[in-house]
Structures are given as C-alpha cells and as structure tokens.
Amino acid sequence: MSYGLIDLDGVLLDTEPLHERALRQTARQFSIPPEKLDLASFKGIPDAVGALLLAALCEPPGDPNAILLQRQANYVALIDEAQLFEGVEALLQTLKDRGYRLALATSALRVNQQRIFDRFGFAPFFDQVITAEDITHGKPHPEPYLKAAACLGTSPAEAFALEDSLAGIQSAKAAGCLAIGITHTFSAKALLEAGADVIVPSLTALARMHGVLA
Asked: Does some domain include residue 214?
C-alpha cells in the first residue's frame, strides 16, 4: 500500500490570488498600510497565525479574533471564484488507480474544505481529511502531516507530501515525509531551500512521473 498526503490551496486549487485579495482587503479594513504587508509570509500558514501577524501590524495592536473573522468573511465571499489547477483530476485518478490511500492536509477551515469538495467532487479520492480544526499547531509545525499519516494508519516515512508553500514543505520534512514541491506559488529554488526532495512544474507532470509515484 502506498500513501499520499496532499495540500489543498495552491496545490489542487488556485486560491492564492483570492487569499491575497482577502488579505489586502482585511489590511485596509484595519488601517494597515499596504507597504507593511509581506504577502509571502502569510502563504501556507493557518489563518489564526496570520491574524496574529496582522494584529501586530496595527497601530495600536489590533484584536486578532476580530481580524481573523473579517479575513475569513472576506475570503468566503470570493471562494466560489476558485478554479482547479490543470491536471487535478488526472493526478487524483492516477493515484487511486495505482492503489494510493490519500489524506488531505490543509490549513483551511473545514467549512471551506467541504465547500470545495462538494463543488469539485473530491470526496471519493480522499480517505481522510485534516483541516485547521483538527490540529493544535499549523504548518510549518509537523503536526498536520503527522496526524494525516496517522489517520491513514501509516508513518510519514511511508508517504509523500505534495506542497506548494515553504511552510508546507517545512512541515512535511519535519514530519519525515518525502516532500514534493510544486511550483504553483514559489520558485523551485525557494522550495528546494525549504527542504523539498523533488520539484515538479505541474500536476500533469507529476502524474506522469515514474519512480516518484510508483
């Protein structure tokens, strides 16, 4: 039996532009100057952690809970614009055909994850789902991938993790997974520096790779 642990946003779903729009809107609503926003630092981390970062940028420091709720509301208003990356269906079907058991390991809220699964029919491909509500420590902490592997009844060393963000790669490597970085969000160089073992340019290319996906 083979195992795969897969992120959602930025890997299967092209949501990074939507997250960026929601983040910029939230910053404006809390009077945070745009020049203070380091957008890359928000990629791949839980929204609750991002809210703490935003609160620290407020003058005086803001309420993280209020910021979190506003940012989530801003994103939900945009989520139906999200589209799949090319090759998603082919990759998921290839993995299932090759006998992989799959777990989703996402920093998204469960309500958003379920909305995406319902819209795109992802549920039959995934045996387990780990969302922000299922963990105490988000990426780059290893907990998301440790828990995802445990839910599949395997060890991280027996699984690959597919990630687009630096925090995600760091989480996967800290857990002990084979970390596959896809260049949807960050460059190959940045992903390698974060610890990625393998770099792929697209989901279609990954589905066709032999020796990485047995």
From this structure: no
Asked whether the whole model's pTM tops 0.85, one would answer yes
Asked if residue 96 lies in contact with residue 22, where contact means CB atoms within 8 angstroms, the answer is no
pLDDT of residue 209: 82
Is the CB of residue 172 less than 8 Å from the CB of residue 141? Answer: no
Burial of 69 (0-12, 13-18, 19+ CB in 10 A): middle
Residue 212: the pLDDT is 64
pLDDT of the residue at 46: 84
Q: Report the candidate in 112, 177, 130 with the shortest Cα–Cα distance to residue 7.
A: 130
Number of compact structural domains in the chain: 2
- Are 172 and 73 members of one domain? no
**Own/partner long-range contacts of 178-185 (Cβ < 8 Å, ≥24 apart):** 180/206, 180/212, 182/11, 182/206, 184/10, 184/11, 184/14, 184/16, 184/85, 185/10, 185/16, 185/43, 185/44
The structure tokens listed for 29 are 């609503």
Mean pLDDT per 10-residue segment, the chain (214 residues): 93 93 95 91 87 94 95 94 96 94 95 95 98 94 98 97 97 98 97 98 89 64
Helices within 30-142 (DSSP H only)? 47-57, 64-76, 88-97, 110-120
What DSSP designation does 124 have?
G
Q: How far is the C-alpha of 110 from the C-alpha of 127, rounded, in Å?
A: 15
**Does 190 share its domain with 97?**
yes
